Amino acid sequence: MWNYNFYVYIVTNADKSVLYVGVTNDLSRRLYEHKGNKGKPHTFAGKYYCYNLVYYEHFSHIEYAIAREKEIKKWRREKKDLLVESVNPNWNFLNDDVID
After folding, report:
1. Based on the number of CB atoms within 10 Å of its own CB, is 66 exposed (0-12), middle (13-18) or buried (19 or more)?
2. Three-class SS state of 9
3. Which of 2, 21, 36, 87 is a good FRET partner for 47, with 20 to 30 A between their CA atoms?
4. Using CA atoms, how far apart are residues 81 and 58, in angstroms rounded to an integer?
């Protein structure tokens, strides 16, 4: 199998009250999509204005990325918060670091 770039990521809204966990093969594009959906009620991230990146992990195989996304989605909010804080203790928005 070929190695590619896949990302599991967490985005939040401006006041950091809602988290969205996703997986993508193009993090920059996906962040643009989330921002373009802001305020649109037909998507969870859009409905809650979740487009600020606070966490991401890189994977070379989609199977591992999907498994990790499913694992994180099952966690309680407190555990997700600890994961974000383990690499981003101030909950800085990382969009500018990854957008092309």
Report:
1. middle
2. strand
3. 87
4. 19
d(CA 23, CA 7): 5
Output the tens digit of pLDDT for each of the chain's 100 residues. Answer: 556 899 999 999 999 999 999 999 999 999 999 999 998 999 999 999 999 999 999 999 999 999 999 999 999 999 999 999 999 999 999 999 998 7
Task: Supply the pTM of this predicted model.
Answer: 0.94
Radius of gyration of the chain (CA): 13
How far apart (Å, rounded) are the C-alpha atoms in residues 23 and 61?
12
Residues 6+ apart with CB under 8 A from 37: 43, 45, 46, 51
Distance CA 62, CA 44 (A): 23
Tokens of 1: 């199998």
Q: How far is CA 40 from the centre of its chain?
A: 18
